[in-house]
Write a structure and sequence with these properties.
91 residues, two-stranded antiparallel ribbon, 4 strands
Protein backbone atom coordinates (compact mmCIF):
# COMPACT_ATOMS: atom_id res chain seq x y z
CA UNK A 1 0.00 0.00 0.00
CA UNK A 2 1.30 3.44 -0.92
CA UNK A 3 0.16 6.57 0.85
CA UNK A 4 0.98 9.95 -0.66
CA UNK A 5 0.46 13.49 0.53
CA UNK A 6 -2.87 15.21 -0.03
CA UNK A 7 -3.20 17.56 -2.98
CA UNK A 8 -3.48 21.25 -2.11
CA UNK A 9 -7.05 22.46 -1.70
CA UNK A 10 -8.58 19.15 -0.67
CA UNK A 11 -8.74 16.51 2.02
CA UNK A 12 -8.22 12.81 1.52
CA UNK A 13 -8.97 9.84 3.71
CA UNK A 14 -8.03 6.16 3.32
CA UNK A 15 -9.33 3.43 5.62
CA UNK A 16 -8.47 -0.24 5.48
CA UNK A 17 -9.71 -3.22 7.46
CA UNK A 18 -8.92 -6.89 7.20
CA UNK A 19 -7.08 -9.87 8.51
CA UNK A 20 -4.81 -12.62 7.24
CA UNK A 21 -5.19 -12.82 3.47
CA UNK A 22 -8.05 -10.37 3.16
CA UNK A 23 -7.93 -6.57 3.18
CA UNK A 24 -10.58 -4.09 2.11
CA UNK A 25 -9.83 -0.38 1.65
CA UNK A 26 -11.92 2.66 0.82
CA UNK A 27 -10.70 6.13 -0.04
CA UNK A 28 -12.53 9.45 -0.04
CA UNK A 29 -11.56 12.80 -1.48
CA UNK A 30 -13.27 16.15 -1.05
CA UNK A 31 -12.68 19.86 -0.86
CA UNK A 32 -10.89 21.17 2.19
CA UNK A 33 -12.44 23.57 4.67
CA UNK A 34 -15.09 23.50 7.34
CA UNK A 35 -17.93 21.15 6.27
CA UNK A 36 -20.37 23.01 8.53
CA UNK A 37 -20.08 26.29 6.62
CA UNK A 38 -22.77 26.72 3.97
CA UNK A 39 -22.53 29.36 1.28
CA UNK A 40 -25.73 31.39 1.11
CA UNK A 41 -26.77 32.32 -2.42
CA UNK A 42 -27.34 36.00 -3.16
CA UNK A 43 -30.92 37.28 -3.02
CA UNK A 44 -33.02 37.00 -6.17
CA UNK A 45 -33.52 40.02 -8.36
CA UNK A 46 -36.97 41.27 -9.34
CA UNK A 47 -36.92 39.45 -12.69
CA UNK A 48 -35.88 36.16 -11.07
CA UNK A 49 -38.60 36.54 -8.42
CA UNK A 50 -41.20 37.11 -11.15
CA UNK A 51 -40.01 34.03 -13.08
CA UNK A 52 -40.10 31.85 -9.95
CA UNK A 53 -43.58 33.11 -9.09
CA UNK A 54 -44.82 32.37 -12.62
CA UNK A 55 -43.36 28.82 -12.47
CA UNK A 56 -45.05 28.23 -9.12
CA UNK A 57 -48.45 29.48 -10.36
CA UNK A 58 -48.17 27.24 -13.43
CA UNK A 59 -47.21 24.22 -11.30
CA UNK A 60 -50.08 24.83 -8.85
CA UNK A 61 -52.59 25.15 -11.71
CA UNK A 62 -51.47 21.86 -13.28
CA UNK A 63 -50.76 19.77 -10.19
CA UNK A 64 -53.47 21.02 -7.79
CA UNK A 65 -51.86 19.66 -4.60
CA UNK A 66 -54.18 18.65 -1.76
CA UNK A 67 -53.46 16.91 1.51
CA UNK A 68 -55.16 13.54 1.91
CA UNK A 69 -54.75 10.82 4.51
CA UNK A 70 -53.53 7.32 3.73
CA UNK A 71 -54.98 4.18 5.31
CA UNK A 72 -52.82 4.71 8.40
CA UNK A 73 -54.02 8.28 8.92
CA UNK A 74 -50.74 9.84 7.76
CA UNK A 75 -51.24 13.13 5.92
CA UNK A 76 -49.79 12.99 2.40
CA UNK A 77 -49.91 15.26 -0.61
CA UNK A 78 -51.94 14.08 -3.60
CA UNK A 79 -51.62 15.59 -7.07
CA UNK A 80 -53.87 15.88 -10.11
CA UNK A 81 -51.09 15.08 -12.62
CA UNK A 82 -48.30 12.52 -12.86
CA UNK A 83 -44.78 13.62 -11.99
CA UNK A 84 -45.89 16.42 -9.69
CA UNK A 85 -44.59 14.57 -6.63
CA UNK A 86 -41.11 15.06 -8.12
CA UNK A 87 -41.58 18.75 -8.89
CA UNK A 88 -42.21 17.98 -12.55
CA UNK A 89 -45.16 19.54 -14.25
CA UNK A 90 -44.43 23.17 -15.04
CA UNK A 91 -42.84 23.38 -18.47
Amino acid sequence: MTLTSVYAGGVGNLNCIGGAGSVNCVGQWGPGGDPNIRIVPPPLGEEEKAQASARERKWLARCQPVIGHDRYGVARYQYAARGCEYGIGAD
